[in-house]
Design brief:
Ubiquitin-like (UB roll); FERM1 protein; about 30% helix; alpha+beta; 7-stranded antiparallel beta sheet; globular; cell projection; PH_Kindlin/fermitin; integrin binding
Length: about 675
């Protein structure tokens, strides 16, 4: 037998590779080590052996076979599990990475390949002057979305050929801490809240110095659209299965880039993963607002989200207005912004804030004692009886979170024909302003699926009041909630944009807008209309938005995007426990939706507010969730790793804990507790 002291004194040979850029200098080394040598001591011995005078502080050991970093320098080799067969690479932790932003602009910067992705994204966002980094993440483009591009690579004029914005010398990219002043709410504004351009007098004081004013403008301002030919060559999802491919490549936020196979100079997509845009402010968030606008714009153009022809023309008109405003601004001398203009933008902005089951709770006593109600004659349509006689007028009463309807107004004192509880239901707009159609589609959860009910309103005002009430009730809130009136105004504002046919002003001449109309709509509508027809229709829709500033046009675009029924849904193909066929699972900021893969119809909705717990069986890769009233579901994910869905659920719950009163620092530990899992 060999004593422990004798065993500890025995040395063994360890092979090490040094990843340096010096030519004619050895990169392979063998050191005699013992198991009780700590990682820091191994670094010291290796650097002494290399004999190159340079800063090695950013270097660490990467264990190739185990795909992990040895970052705990006080741990011994025995504790790390390192033996003679290990291949350790001594390499830099910060490496160059190419990021394609939502605006399709590619930036090149140094990123930590050893930090968890959550922390790496935070550092990236500080470099780019984007607040609220927790809303973004990194995405690997899946093979399925690249096929169309590869086929046409020879003839296509890719957006990738544009100049890459190189930010490799920024302080954050070099691993230095960023100045937190950018994140202070009390600081001097660093962006013009009307034009969105950097305020040059303050940009150097309050930013972290990583962006020059020119670079800041590139990221904060939108640029001319790509050609229709380039747009046609990009990946466009046609089915729910295609849309599921778009969300398959999210990186694990609790692991590093190197651990997930990302190499130096690789290209990843930086995208808004969570659709809860908290505390938007044009005075500090010009880059963030522009990138949200761009992500929304490309989602519309590539038909990643469905919209009607009427809505597509509104999006086209807002894009056109943005470019017209930008051209007019560039040709004029900029005057300082007066307070009234700032107030108008902030008033418009208040309608755009999206929080998870949030709302101002300052009027709690009023909510308890005085809950408003709605009472009107509305038309009721049952989907199983689509004949004309199935449309009947009833007296509807909306109280709390329920709708009751009666045969007449006089009979409202008695028992209703039916009472519909809207808590947890899906609310889908069914509107055509030109045709004077103002409908509300309600999908109400029942034991065996969803009960469909259609309500038809008489006019815009009635529709806005009832639609806002339905939206709040679906989230478990009443009309006494402080968000009710802003919701009504937001709906009316959107309807007003659609109502261009009622405008008597003469439309602008096509020559006044020097841009191709095909650049502002998806290829489907380019094929449907001739260029002159499309120009005329866009200019007609443009009349209602022609007075908007740069930032307001983008905010209205985001608002219209948020109003679409499919907004915020990320799709995955799953197989539910006990089912013999595949379904699509839609993950949103406040609910999960089971969708029929063939028809696209929602089957069941489960709200996060009713969720008791969820867990993952990592052996069989199955997600199990328990809800109130003894409802439980379980499913395996077929289109992506189940960790992605697990992280989505935990991430949205984490974001719901944010508050304007505590927005200085993020509880990173809580995020990893909710999203990390134990594999």
């Amino acid at each position: 037998m060999v004593s422990s002291s004798e065993y500890g004194s025995h040395t063994w040979e360890l092979s090490l590779t040094v990843d340096h850029q010096h030519e004619n200098v050895e990169k392979e080394f063998s050191l005699q080590v013992t198991g009780n040598l700590h990682v820091g001591g191994l670094m010291l011995k290796l650097v002494e052996q290399i004999k190159i005078a340079q800063d090695w502080s950013d270097y660490a050991f990467w264990w190739e076979q185990k795909k992990c970093w040895l970052l705990k320098t006080h741990w011994t080799l025995d504790k790390c599990g390192v033996q003679a067969d290990a291949k350790l690479i001594f390499t830099t932790q910060h490496k160059m990475l190419r990021l394609r932003l939502p605006s399709m602009k590619t930036v090149r910067l140094k990123v930590s390949f050893s930090s968890m992705v959550f922390r790496a994204v935070s550092d990236i966002c500080k470099t780019l002057n984007i607040r609220r980094s927790e809303e973004l993440s990194l995405l690997k483009q899946s093979e399925g979305t690249l096929k169309k591009k590869k086929k046409k690579d020879k003839n296509s004029k890719e957006l990738v050929t544009e100049d890459i914005l190189d930010l490799c010398n920024s302080p954050v990219s070099s691993g230095l801490p960023a100045n937190p002043g950018l994140y202070s709410k009390t600081m001097t504004p660093i962006y013009d809240p009307v034009s969105g351009s950097p305020a040059s007098s303050t940009i150097t004081w309050f930013s972290d110095g990583s962006l020059t004013e020119q670079s800041c403008s590139i990221l904060a301002l939108s640029h001319p659209n790509c050609s229709p030919e380039t747009l046609a060559e990009m990946y466009q999802p046609r089915t729910l299965a295609d849309k599921a491919k778009l969300n398959a490549g999210w990186l694990d936020s609790s692991r590093s880039l190197m651990e997930q196979g990302v190499q130096e100079e690789d290209q990843l997509l930086l995208r808004f993963k969570y659709y809860t845009f908290f505390d938007l402010n044009p005075k500090y968030d010009a880059v963030r607002i522009n990138q949200i606008y761009e992500q929304a714009r490309w989602a519309i153009l590539l038909e990643e989200i469905d919209c009607t022809e009427e809505e597509m023309l509104i999006f086209a008109a807002l894009q056109a207005q943005y470019h017209v405003s930008k051209l007019s601004l560039s040709s004029e001398t900029q005057d300082s912004t007066c307070e009234s203009e700032v107030d108008e933008v902030e008033a418009a902005l208040s309608n755009l804030e999206v929080t998870l089951e949030g709302g101002n709770k300052s009027n709690i006593l009023e909510d308890i004692t005085d809950i408003p109600k709605l009472a009107d004659n509305l038309k009721l349509i049952r989907p199983k009886k689509l004949a004309l006689k199935a449309i009947k007028t009833y007296w509807f009463v909306f109280r709390d979170t329920s709708i009751s309807y009666f045969k007449t107004k006089e009979s409202a004192q008695g028992e209703p024909i039916e009472k519909l509880n809207l808590k947890g239901c899906e609310v889908v707009p069914d509107v055509n302003v030109a045709a004077k159609k103002f409908g509300i589609k309600l999908l109400i959860p029942v034991a065996d699926g969803m009960n469909e009910v259609y309500l038809r309103c008489d006019n815009e005002d009635q529709y806005a009041r009832w639609m806002a009430a339905c939206v709040l009730a679906s989230k478990g809130r009443t009309m006494a909630d402080s968000s009710y009136q802003p919701e009504v105004q937001k709906i009316l504002s959107f309807l007003q944009m659609k109502n261009w046919t009622m405008c008597s002003q003469a439309s602008s001449e096509p020559e006044t807008v020097d841009m191709k109309p095909e650049c502002f709509v998806s290829p489907r509508y380019t094929k449907k209309f001739k260029s002159k027809q499309l120009t005329a229709r866009i200019l007609e829709a443009h009349q209602n938005v022609s007075q908007m500033s740069l930032v307001e046009a983008k905010l209205r675009f985001i608002q219209a995007w948020q109003s679409l029924p499919e907004f915020g849904l990320s799709y995955y193909i799953v197989r539910f426990k006990g089912s013999k066929k595949d379904d699509v699972l839609g993950v949103s900021y406040n609910r999960l939706i089971r969708i029929d893969m063939a028809t696209g119809d929602p089957i069941t909705t489960w709200r996060f507010s009713n969720m008791k717990q969820w867990n993952v069986n990592w052996e069989i890769r199955q997600v199990a969730i328990e809800f109130d009233q003894n409802v439980s579901i379980a499913f395996t994910c077929l289109s992506a790793d189940c960790k992605i869905i697990h992280e989505y659920i935990g991430g949205y719950i984490f974001l719901s804990t944010r508050s304007k009163d505590h927005n200085d620092t993020l509880d990173e530990e809580l995020f990893h507790k909710l999203t990390g899992g134990q594999e």
